[in-house]
Amino acid sequence: MRRIIGVPTELNDKGFPAFFRGWEWKDDPADEVIIDFSRVSFIARWAITLFAAHALWLKEVRGRNVDVWIDETSEAGRFLGRLGFRGLLGKEDASTRPVLSGHMAPLTRIATSDAIPAYVDSVMKVLAIEDEEMAGAVQYSIVELLRNVVQHSRSGVGGVAFATYLPTVGMAEFVVVDAGCGIRASLRERYPELTNDLAALRWAVQPHVSGTFAPGAYQSMANNAGLGLFFIKEIVSRGCGSLFLGSGGMLADYWGNLNGTAGKQYVESRTGGWPGTFALVQLRRDKISEFGALLQRCREIAAAARKDPTEHKLDFVDGVPEIEGLTVIPVKPFEENVERAAEIREGTIIPALERDELVVLDFRGVKFATQSFAHACIYRILRDVPVALTGLTIANATPATREAIRAVAAYATVDGVPAA
User: Fold this and answer.
1) Lowest mean pLDDT among 136-150, 180-194, 209-223, 369-383
2) Which 8-state DSSP code applies to residue 251?
3) Are the C-beta atoms of 315 and 271 separated by less than 8 Å?
4) What is the mean pLDDT of the chain?
5) Cβ contacts of residue 410 below 8 Å, gap of 6+?
6) Domain 2-304 class?
């Protein structure tokens, strides 16, 4: 029995969230699987890497006979050939051999820690990034993402990586994909409160979070343990870049704005999402001025988070996530009414969190919240509800409102640990 996977005719960067929301990655019992690129007119690098990881998983984990249909006369077909898609499946020939040139490294599988240094060294030579600060940020980020794959993914095929640099626009892009257990399963043993993919994604990018050590075990960590994804998120947020991080049924989109602020949105899959984990990172040359200083700032934030984990792990987002099952509470109707805020906190928010539901406090329309009002909304939640940091999201808060909430979070802790 044969199954043909018809790849959409056009998959561009702007279409990434919509593709994630609607595409279903299947494992049918077919003996032969064909991935059909023959009608594709344009395909982005992230899509190629995802399909490559899926093809490897079908072939080596599920035991399917996997082949690829490519129109080698089309621009998309020639691009797939240059990246070595067929070669990754053991079907390489002279016409599909990957090309190490043009600031673009081909698709490569990484399955062991020993393979990471040589791969990264070769990639950096091929990308030939002329800006030393940006090159440092790119190299650091690729190494951290690959380490996550090797150490945490439990992927039967390792990870698939791709990297390119576009010198004319000063942008570097790289993708790392695995078809492993996913972030939630990787963290769940240490963090049993992570009962859904959104909570797991939120937690994974916080400082000092890892599946390899217990919460709060800062003194026993290996060097930089639990900081990889946090550092990458901070690098892109402070350097006007972007990070798409997806796992299971949830995709997180992080970016940095020109005014120095950071943005974040969530996208939920309607079809199950990606079974493993993937990361797409874009960095801009003219926005990363001093990488060493940027890393030092990240370390300072991480160190502060040891003393005050609640404040640094608050979840601020732009816009209410389009996710089923959310309890969304518009704050504007009871703005600055502390008595009503307390009633909603006790009667709605806390019971929902204790049922492992996700709660969004939507501050749309609130120009600024006083600290007293923020206290009425969230103080007892942060102090007394163990799952508050994984279940509560703050949406559409202005900078002034964020500062009020952060101030409340800072004194809602005792010796840096949420009170019991």
Assistant:
1) 209-223
2) E
3) no
4) 85
5) 308, 310, 311
6) alpha beta
CA separation for the pair 158, 163 (Å, rounded): 17
CA distance 298 to 231: 6
Q: Which two tokens stand for residue 152?
A: 């945490």
Dump pLDDT digits (tens) for 295-338.
777 777 766 655 555 555 788 998 898 888 889 999 999 999 99
Q: How far from 400 is each of 23, 36, 41, 311, CA to CA, in Å?
A: 39, 51, 46, 15
Task: Count the neighbouring beta carbons within 10 Å of the beta carbon of residue 230.
Answer: 22
Residue 90 has which token pair?
A: 């053991």
Residue with token string 């996208």:
267
| Rounded CA Rg of the chain | 22
3-state secondary structure of 367: coil
Q: Give the confidence band of 419 by pLDDT, cuts at 50, 70, 90.
A: very low
Q: What is the DSSP string of 86-147?
A: HHHTT---GGG----BTTEEEEEEE-STTHHHHHHHHHHHHH----HHHHHHHHHHHHHHHH
Contact at 8 Å (CB) between 311 and 77?
no
Q: Where are the domains of the chain?
A: 2-304, 308-418
Alpha-carbon torsion angle 117, 122, 126, 127, nearest 10: 0
Query: Cβ–Cβ contacts within 10 Å for residue 34, how many?
Result: 17
Contacts of 118 (CB under 8 A, 6+ apart): none
The pLDDT tens digits for 192-202 are 888 889 989 98
In b/e form, how buried is each residue of 251-272, taking b as 16+ CB within 10 angstroms? bbbbbbeeeeebebbbbbbeee
User: 256-264 contacts: CB < 8 A, separation 24 or more?
Assistant: 256/287, 261/399, 262/237, 262/238, 263/318, 264/316, 264/317, 264/318
Residues 212 and 151: beta-carbon distance below 8 Å: yes
Residues near 405 by beta carbon (within 8 Å), at least 6 away in sequence: 314, 369, 374, 377, 378, 394, 397
Q: Quote the pLDDT of residue 211.
A: 62
Per DSSP (E only), the strands in 144-293 are: 159-166, 171-178, 242-248, 250-256, 262-268, 274-284
The average pLDDT across 217-237 equals 64
Q: Is 168 within 8 Å of 317 (Cβ atoms)?
A: no
For residue 262, the cross-strand partners are 256
Question: Quick one: residue 84, left, alpha or beta (phi over 0 = left, psi -120 to 50 = alpha)?
Answer: left
The CA angle 88-128-258, to the nearest 5 degrees, is 100
Per-residue tokens: 328? 């969304």
